[in-house]
Amino acid sequence: MERTTVEDMDIAVRAHLQGWKFIYLNDVKVLCELPESYQAYRKQQHRWHSGPMQLFRLCLPAIIKSKIPLWKKANLVMLFFLLRKLILPFYSFTLFCVILPLTMFVPEAELPIWVICYVPMIMSVLNILPAPKSFPFVIPYLLFENTMSVTKFNAMVSGLFQLGSSYEWVVTKKAGRTSSESDIFAMAEETDTATRPAPRLVRGVSEAGLEAWAKTHQLDNKDLQLKAQAEEVTSLAAAIKKTSKAKPPNRIFKKELALAFLLLIAATRSLLSAQGLHFYFLLFQGVTFLVVGLDLIGEQVS
């Protein structure tokens, strides 16, 4: 935590520099929890992009001085750090959020189709290759990734220049996680009641039988009390969950809204100048920014 906010990447880099080899097991499936809202996802992505840039500054001298082969150093620097954490966010943000909209206001400027179409499609296909089932979602993925490039670009700059937000550590709120102590207490009570062994009567003389019956009666009373307490706690937890299901008010993300208006105005100018491909891209990208800026994406899960 004191060194970086991405301790898993830090361990991987240092192990790689020590000559450790890694094997990727493609058949292992691990369940994961999703962020409960777009705000939580946004903070998670900020940490995941500012942390690597912060780590890059720390590890670059060690990478240069390490004894691993030169091609491994280049692979580590380019693919592990720069390509996905610096180059792609910078490319997406500057091209699709700044340069392309502004060219609609300058008639002399013209971008070739391969810049706004082929390059992003190739990048998206390369990202989707590990998961072929995601191929039908390549267009929504591209639009959403361009929208997230604002957050990623900001995080990349803060991590690279070690600004204040690069050290921010906020635990991502996940959907489906037990969030209240009452839920945990109720689960513990139910487990304890279910696993407690039932008392056994020892048949023998009458006095021993009476003593065993008295102990059993006392245990039954305790079980009833614990069961009543567990039911009370469970009902309280259900009431808390019911009240917490109320959707919180939507947030307003000013950067995304500003870019949405810029893109929509640029789309209007593109339509007036009969630039069909530019118009459709700017329109859909502007609508995506507008939806995200008004926090209308996804469900707020408590």
Explain how this protein is built:
There is one protein chain. Helices cover about 65% and strands about 0% of the residues. The chain is mainly α. It folds into two domains: about 1-175 and about 245-300, no CATH class; about 180-245. The chain starts with 6 loop residues before the first helix and ends in a 9-residue tail after the last helix. The model is unreliable at about 180-185 and about 200-205 (pLDDT under 50). It holds the Pfam family Glyco_trans_2_3. Keywords: Cell wall biogenesis/degradation, Glycosyltransferase, Golgi apparatus, Membrane, Transferase, Transmembrane, Transmembrane helix. One of its GO terms (biological process) is cell wall organization. It is a multi-pass membrane protein.
Brief account:
The protein is an all-alpha fold and 302 residues long. 67% of the residues lie in helices and 0% in strands. It folds into 2 domains: 1-177 and 247-302, no CATH class; 181-244.
Structural key phrases:
single chain; 302 residues; mainly alpha; 9 helices; globular
Describe the secondary-structure layout.
Elements: H1 7-17, H2 38-65, H3 70-103, H4 113-128, H5 138-160, H6 181-195, H7 206-244, H8 254-272, H9 276-293
Q: Which runs of at least 5 residues are low in confidence (pLDDT < 50)?
A: 178-185, 201-205
Please identify the structural class as seen in this structure: mainly alpha
Count of the domains: 2
Helix count equals: 9
Report the order of strands and helices.
Answer: HHHHHHHHH
N/C terminus separation: 28 Å
- What would the average pLDDT be, to the nearest integer? 77
What best-fitting shape do the alpha-carbon axes yield? globular
